[in-house]
Amino acid sequence: MVATIFVSCGQFTEDEKNLGKRICEIVRLSRHEPYFAETQSNLRGLHENILTKLFECSGLITVMHPRGEVHVSPTAHHVRGSVWIEQEIAIAAFLTHCLKRNIQVAAFIHESVRREGIRDLLHLNPISFRDDDEITERLPAILNTWRLEENVSTVSPGTKDELKPFGPHNYFYRNNNTEGPYCPFCWQRDKKEVLLPASVDYIVGHGRHCRICNQQYIEGPKKGGGSSPRLATDYPGRY
Ligand SMILES: [Zn+2]
Q: What's the CA-to-centroid distance between 180 and ligand 1, angstroms?
């Protein structure tokens, strides 16, 4: 089974581009498929090349190089990392925390870059580095420990059984209702097999949301529990 590993590394300098390529080589040697994310300049490219690939990946290797000093007052300043990479980490956090995806993460953060934004609140266990070579030296051993789940895919080989509706919410399943639930809307309209994520609380009730067709399935009232969503104003130091 080949899993896709999303490589989120700066491409601002030649050194950074070369590092990204070396990381891709190491991923291939571990018999997985790298996806080297490139900066996108339009919404379509963002959707097709970053958001979809992030959703499909089973692993994320992220390398945060310094991007310059931020002066928050005449006396206080710190070094900030790449905004693209910060955001890709945040999206991966959403996938794992809210959509219950199992994504392995290796986060290499340059020693000068301060922890800020959503990354400040995540338990990423980042690996601090000073020199790019430290990353390529440590990565093979890290990849060796990863147990990667199969890529999420919107289309599966046509040799399997048809999907059949089952249960109180009429989600679709196969293999005697052991494999699923699949999105009814995507299956009935487009013959796309899209696995639905685990049910969670939404504002309107407890249920599931299909990322492909955007259909919301409500299974019942909210179950509550856990902490209520925080407001952006609860987070200090967001600027
Ligand atoms: Zn759907």
A: 13
